[in-house]
Amino acid sequence: MCSTEECSHGLKNCIYVFALVGHLSMHRHKQRAGKEGQVLHRSKRGWVWNQFFVIEEYTGPDPVLVGRLHSDVDSGDGNIKYILSGEGAGTIFVIDDKTGNIHATKTLDREEQAQYTLTAQAVARDTNKPLEPPSEFIVKVQDINDNPPEFLHGPYYARVPEMSNVGTSVMQVTATDADDPTYGNSARLVYSILQGQPYFSVEPQTGIIRTALPNMDREARQEYDVVIQAKDMGGHMGGLSGTTEVKITLTDVNDNPPKFPQSVYPMSVSEDKVPGEEVGRLKAKDPDLGDNGLVNYRLIDGDGMSMFELTTDSETREAVIKLKKPVDFETKRSYTLKVEGSNPHVDPQFLAWGPYKDEATIKISVEDADEPPVFVAPSYTFEVEENAPEGTLVGRVHAKDTDVANNPVRYMIPRYTDVEQFFSINSEDGMITTTRPLDRETQAWHNISVSATEIDTKVRVNIKVKDVNDNPPEFATNNEVLMCETVAPGKVIETVSAVDKDEMAHRQHFTFSLAPEVAHNHNFSLKDNRDSTASIYDVYYLPIEINDNGFPAMSSTNTLTIRVCSCDSKDTILSCNVEPYVLPAGLSTGALIAILACIVILLAIVVLFVALRRQKKEPLIVFEEEDIRENIITYDDEGGGEEDTEAFDIATLQNPDGANGFLPRKDIKPELQYPIRPGIGRPAANSVDVDDFIKTRIAEADSDPTAPPYDSIQIYGYEGRGSLAGSLSSLESVTTESDLDYDYLQSWGPRFKKLADLERERERYKQIKRKC
């Protein structure tokens, strides 16, 4: 074994080189010699080394000597050259090629790279021929405590329930150290608490934080800032340390009952407040949060429980006292309520700390308000006779002031309730009187209001107008009565009844009698049925007097119109006289208007019809001269000349049976008729051969010297051959109307001049018709 200088450049540690490789080589040579049976001599090993060590973070002025390489073949004459290669060779590590000394030129950090692998070789300086095979060695960077512990995930946040027991785990914190944990105590950490005592503690080896005090109250303090330290070197002096902050929050539990700040709450309410209005509020304090601090309220006692009610404001969580019924200062001036506030959610763990409820008393005083006068009755109903004179007393209303002051009351009638001002009222005593006579038949009831002021208050007053018998009775209906002319004397033809605008008193009825002017008429009679009806016997125009038996008695004469009608044997009315039997009936205004309207409509229809007829008779084209077209005869066929004025009847050709008889001429009867020659044959009577029939008739015509061929078929393909006028046939007329020219007709004489004018006007009319 060889080594470097014992202490070099002031280093605290010495570097040792172990000759392990040489021992291994000698052992292998002995094994080989034993196997071959030969005596082997140990060869001298050139390299005696294995690994070097260098301390990290060296900051001296000179390079650090890592180690020295030496070969046995090196005689010190400088012929051997040492070569170094591998990690950091030439940059971090340099070698003296003559002496083999290896130096570190830079500061090394084990946390960046813990070791370096290098290769050394000895060669001849002049030829660079290797004298020894290359060998590897390792340079290890020896650790020093140059890295403090670090908390990689800080700061930390933790939560723990309030009132937790001592030793309750809060959380665990862990620090890391970059130094070598296998070398010395550089990475051996110990935890301690620097801030947060005496509330919390930390386990030195694990870093678990625990509670250190009992009954930590969130309501007293909610958050704690704890500082934890981690120190290496086992916590001994000289070790490096790191710290982190832990923010610990106490969570809420229901450990506090609700509490009213006051035991008695005074409130007041005015007597003019309406039910539903708020009287006051109160709130029990509970320092707990959320559901733990929720408080429910209820009324549990007091003489005002029927007059007031309690609700909870969902936003402010206050108990709201509201008026349930109207209060009256004059009746009761104060009320007492007892309110309870309690937690609906109680933690069984803290049940023994209860009770979780509290009580308070509310004293409510009723305040006096200037209330309006109050009428003795909610409404009034009076009666007054119709036609009573002005100033007649109707009745009296009375109101009183319920306030302690008892101020006087003033009365008035609002005009909108008595528009026509039938009534007036005394403003001091409330006496109501009429201002004019009243008519029950015009308005039976008068509904007015009376105001009573200190503060305006109204009461309804209903005034009924009492009836006076000032209207005579009259027929209930004014319908006409129809009577058969053959009715037997004494038969009832109608029963009449009466009505009266006045009120009918009990047992009051109508009586009927004939008017004095017809009392002795023998054509009719009337029977009073004593039930406010009367029966009529045989009557025409019948004046009837009706009496109502009232006080004073009123009567009237009403005329009943009866028409005499013709009836069948079953007394079914067939027709009636248009006019009453005695007096002629005049037409009503409506009937006259209807008749006049019908006459006007009929006249309008006649005038319209005549106008349409005139319009149809007017010609479409008016000629200055006489229209001669009515003398023109249109022929659809062409016949046998000027003397033939009748069209040829072809029915004979369609019915060959008609050829059996002899057909004489229609215009001139021949003097002699020759019999048919027996040698000429005729077709059979039932023959339908038209060709044979024509041939037979031609033969007969040819053999008759006295008669022209009146029944022969004449075909005119063209007329007037050789004539200067040309053909007049419509068969060969020009088809286009625009090519027609009638001026040449004027040269033929006065007869054709009129024809040319007529055809020219006819063409103009056709053109106008096409445009339309």
Automatic annotation (TrEMBL):
<keyword id="KW-1003">Cell membrane</keyword>
<keyword id="KW-0479">Metal-binding</keyword>
<dbReference type="InterPro" id="IPR002126">
    <property type="entry name" value="Cadherin-like_dom"/>
</dbReference>
<dbReference type="GO" id="GO:0016477">
    <property type="term" value="P:cell migration"/>
</dbReference>
<dbReference type="GO" id="GO:0002009">
    <property type="term" value="P:morphogenesis of an epithelium"/>
</dbReference>
<dbReference type="GO" id="GO:0044331">
    <property type="term" value="P:cell-cell adhesion mediated by cadherin"/>
</dbReference>
<dbReference type="GO" id="GO:0045296">
    <property type="term" value="F:cadherin binding"/>
</dbReference>
<dbReference type="Pfam" id="PF00028">
    <property type="entry name" value="Cadherin"/>
</dbReference>
<comment type="function">
    <text>Cadherins are calcium-dependent cell adhesion proteins.</text>
</comment>
<dbReference type="InterPro" id="IPR020894">
    <property type="entry name" value="Cadherin_CS"/>
</dbReference>
<keyword id="KW-1133">Transmembrane helix</keyword>
<keyword id="KW-0677">Repeat</keyword>
<dbReference type="InterPro" id="IPR000233">
    <property type="entry name" value="Cadherin_Y-type_LIR"/>
</dbReference>
<dbReference type="GO" id="GO:0005509">
    <property type="term" value="F:calcium ion binding"/>
</dbReference>
<dbReference type="Pfam" id="PF01049">
    <property type="entry name" value="CADH_Y-type_LIR"/>
</dbReference>
<keyword id="KW-0130">Cell adhesion</keyword>
<dbReference type="GO" id="GO:0007043">
    <property type="term" value="P:cell-cell junction assembly"/>
</dbReference>
<keyword id="KW-0106">Calcium</keyword>
<feature type="domain" description="Cadherin">
    <location>
        <begin position="376"/>
        <end position="475"/>
    </location>
</feature>
<feature type="domain" description="Cadherin">
    <location>
        <begin position="261"/>
        <end position="375"/>
    </location>
</feature>
<dbReference type="GO" id="GO:0008013">
    <property type="term" value="F:beta-catenin binding"/>
</dbReference>
<keyword id="KW-0325">Glycoprotein</keyword>
<feature type="transmembrane region" description="Helical">
    <location>
        <begin position="591"/>
        <end position="612"/>
    </location>
</feature>
<feature type="domain" description="Cadherin">
    <location>
        <begin position="152"/>
        <end position="260"/>
    </location>
</feature>
<dbReference type="InterPro" id="IPR027397">
    <property type="entry name" value="Catenin-bd_sf"/>
</dbReference>
<protein>
    <submittedName>
        <fullName>Cadherin 11, type 2, OB-cadherin (osteoblast)</fullName>
    </submittedName>
</protein>
<dbReference type="GO" id="GO:0016342">
    <property type="term" value="C:catenin complex"/>
</dbReference>
<feature type="domain" description="Cadherin">
    <location>
        <begin position="71"/>
        <end position="151"/>
    </location>
</feature>
<keyword id="KW-0812">Transmembrane</keyword>
<dbReference type="GO" id="GO:0016339">
    <property type="term" value="P:calcium-dependent cell-cell adhesion via plasma membrane cell adhesion molecules"/>
</dbReference>
<keyword id="KW-0965">Cell junction</keyword>
<dbReference type="InterPro" id="IPR015919">
    <property type="entry name" value="Cadherin-like_sf"/>
</dbReference>
<keyword id="KW-0472">Membrane</keyword>
<dbReference type="InterPro" id="IPR039808">
    <property type="entry name" value="Cadherin"/>
</dbReference>
<feature type="domain" description="Cadherin">
    <location>
        <begin position="475"/>
        <end position="582"/>
    </location>
</feature>
<dbReference type="GO" id="GO:0034332">
    <property type="term" value="P:adherens junction organization"/>
</dbReference>
<dbReference type="GO" id="GO:0000902">
    <property type="term" value="P:cell morphogenesis"/>
</dbReference>
<dbReference type="GO" id="GO:0007156">
    <property type="term" value="P:homophilic cell adhesion via plasma membrane adhesion molecules"/>
</dbReference>
<dbReference type="GO" id="GO:0005912">
    <property type="term" value="C:adherens junction"/>
</dbReference>
